[in-house]
Amino acid sequence: MRKLERYPVQGANALWQLYKTVSFYKVLKNFIIIQIARYTPFLAWKNWLYKNLLHMEVGAYTAFALMVMVDLMFPERIKVGTNSVIGYNTTLLTHEYLIKEYRLGNIIIGNEVMIGANSTILPGVTIGDGATVAAGTIVAKDVDAGSFVAGNPMRVVFTAKEMLERKQEAE
């Protein structure tokens, strides 16, 4: 189950009320920084931009591939552990603007997590250490440490125990 904070709105849908919830200048600054980071080929530079200018928590040796899109409005709600890989064109969302409410939630990605290309991580999700998310997966609920998940809707392909058994068989 995702851990979300819910904020009701009156009148026009929540997205029309965006700048009541987050500063226009914060969004503009984040947009510029995120676009630079999406295209830079230097992983250390990306991590520096994310940590120092967007206030994300990013562990050592974590790699954000080309075109990764971090949340534009609340990137500071993203925490990624050490030595993880976030695949090409993955989206990390910490907000949802709906008609009658908006929702915010942290994204916590553990150590040595592999997230395949074109995945979407929704707000309020925790992905445990050593987990693998297949390419194109919509992560709409927590992922247990060491497990392998895939699909839309996301399903567990292998548990941590099954993944360990498979690794032992391969040796």
From TrEMBL:
The keyword Transmembrane applies. Keywords: Membrane, Repeat, Transferase, Transmembrane, Transmembrane helix. Gene3D superfamilies: Hexapeptide repeat proteins (2.160.10.10). GO terms for molecular function: transferase activity. InterPro entries: Hexapep, Hexapep_transf_CS, Trans_hexapeptide_repeat, Trimer_LpxA-like_sf. The chain crosses the membrane at residues 53-74. Pfam families: Hexapep_2. This is Acetyltransferase (Isoleucine patch superfamily).
